[in-house]
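Supplementary material to the annual report.
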Amino acid sequence: MAELNTNDGGGKKGGGKVRSKKQNSKVDLTAMVDLAFLLITFFMLTTTLSKPQAMDLGLPDKEDNPRDNTEIKVDQRRTMTIILGANDKIEWFHGLLATPEPGGKPTQTTHGREGIRKEILKRVASVPQVTGNKDKGLIVIIKPTAKSSYKNLVDILDEMAICSVPTYAIVNDFSPEEKALAEKLNK
Amino acid sequence: MAKVKMSKKAASIDMTAMCDVAFLLLTFFILTATAKNPEPLPVETPNSTVQSKLPEDNLAVITIGDGDKVFYGIKGREVRKRTLELMGDMYNIQFTDKEKDEFALIEEFGAPIEALKQVIAMKGADRNKKGVQPGIPHDTLNDNKENQLKDWIYTSRQANIDVQQEQLNFAIKGDAKEQYPKVKQIMDELQKQKVNSFSLVTGLRGKNY
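Predicted assembly:
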């Protein structure tokens, strides 16, 4: 207790000694508490407790003259294409669009645990078994349409990190068939 | 009738414990505080589960939000000063020493270089008001005068090498609702200058997303 006992009990009484007056020395702390809470409120409101996170993204070199581009052939069993559409919609397929892999027909789904992640996780596990080489895992091709939002892109990149997809790329070219698919999705 | 006398109670409560707690919390908040920088272009970043933090220095942040506005921020006062000098040389605009010192204190700005003098002359509070700064011109179709973002990126990289002898890192801080092509435009701008690796600023998302 913030209380000071000013009377020294047990001291000798009497004998012309000047007795100090008994005082109630309880300090009123109300103002101090008020001030403390005011400052707490101030600091709580002005601080940013969480520093922003940074998602690292590496893009391939941009080639200015396309004739230098050598076509790299990739096993179609390994590729999964994800098209990001308007209003958080996703269309995905596994393999080639014309001849999809079993169970990999173009399908519309949503972001998150119950949507696209299930499909990615399934293929992260199954593709190395199909190719028979554990270095040849899934390749995800992310194709954001012009109507998709930045949030969709970050979400899907996050999904890549969550599912630990070995290889993924952001591609902005659409084949005519994919374009038709994207337009249907954005409708 | 005999009145029931209420026993007089002491009206003062003992505040010591409350005071202790209050000051304990106060101390905690003061020690963990990092002042929130006022942002001229507040954006709501998308969330992700990544755990890596944004570096504190050698960093330039390109903020994009509110339609198509682009703001630019460089960490480090000396780098900012040097960037302004180089930009001034490029656009033949002379900045006084006072203006350079003032610019060194501006965390983030978004104005065409022609209007930068007015922005520097403003008070900090006015500068950060919504709509005061129109954003940096970044029209990628016309490669020359309309694209000042390109020059800011170029000069700040130069300035960072001059001052810190290190490569400048880039981060893109986009609003979650921003359309993808707008963000892609910025990425293309960086890639044109052979900056192929950069960070995307995100908020933190819960573990069980």
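Chain B has one domain: 47-204.
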